[in-house]
Amino acid sequence: MLQGKKFLVTAAAAAIIFSACSGSATSAPSAGASAGASAGAAGKAYNLTLIQGVKGDPFYVTMACGAQAEATKQGAALTVTGGDKWDATVQTPVVNSVTAAKPDGVMVAPNDSKALLAPLKAMNDAGIKVTFVDTGLEDLSFAQSFITSDNEQGGTLGAKTLATLIGDKGTVLMINVDPGISTTDARAKGFVDEMKNHPNIKVLDVQYSHDDPTVATSITTSTLAAHSDLAGIFATNVQNAEGAATGLKQSASRPSRSSASTQAPSRSKTSRTGSSRASSPRIPTRSALTACSRRSLRSRVRRRPRASAPSSPPLPRTT
Predict the structure, then answer these.
(1) What does pLDDT average to in each consecutive run of 10 residues of the chain (319 residues)?
(2) What is the rounded CA–CA span in Å between residue 12 and residue 76?
(3) Domain 5-23+40-149+283-295: top CATH class
(4) Is 203 helix (H, G, I), strand (E, B) or coil?
(5) Which residues on neighbouring strands pair with residue 6, listed in sequence order?
(6) Fewest beta carbons less than 10 Å away: which of 89, 194, 198, 232?
(7) 8 A C-beta contact, residue 288 and residue 24
(8) Longest alpha-carbon distance in the chain
(9) What residues does CATH 3.40.50.2300 cover in the chain?
(10) What's the CATH class of domain 151-279?
């Protein structure tokens, strides 16, 4: 079961992720990796591609590290690519370019559950095996697998956590990314549905940040100014959580609490204005390892059922 935990943020979190990738690129291969490479050489050396939801996001950087580790172990070649921002119009040309390159298999986090259906279906029709990681599409019938968290449960847990933090009464705000993203849509649904069980909490209309922390900051400060009774904020991803934390810090005279459903290892921020808790922690490396092992060496076998990554273990509490 997913656990709600309290975390502090360190600025070094993302740097550790980047250094882990660069370190693995320069280190000598392990015995396991050599064995995997030999196994790959004995058969077909598969060419795989990971299309990240957005480049530079610590969650997807970590996922790429896990994918590269497993690809090396399996003797497969991995290319990592993605758009510069979370936008279906940016990701679509990336998908089309990968399709033209004709890799054996692709792991992809679609930016929109509807807009990416046609280009990813075309990828599948071109004979490329497609697995969805993190986010998915409305139609998953052609997917080899879909590896994700229980995001609706994450939203439910976020609502329960926030209700506890604010004494089960007051006004709260949810900051989401954009409609049409399978993961954050599910978190939003879980949050709203659970809040129906808390009649003394008023949920304001959802605000959208377009995956921009500065917009989330602006939303937070403007909402604090407009609603003197604002008691808490639910952020559906790490960019929104960081933006909300910045907004709370800028409005330091106002006590407020926030609950964040996050992706990255730097789960959430705590500011002087109150507490911040993170719900629905996910292990991106595990998702990538699962996807890579299915994609390489076994990619001749079609796997129709949707698969979920194993439940993440509770993360240690820090103070």
Answers:
(1) 27 25 36 42 79 91 91 92 95 98 96 96 96 94 91 95 94 95 94 97 96 95 93 93 91 60 41 41 45 41 39 38
(2) 31
(3) alpha beta
(4) strand
(5) 277
(6) 89
(7) no
(8) 67
(9) 5-23+40-149+283-295, 151-279
(10) alpha beta
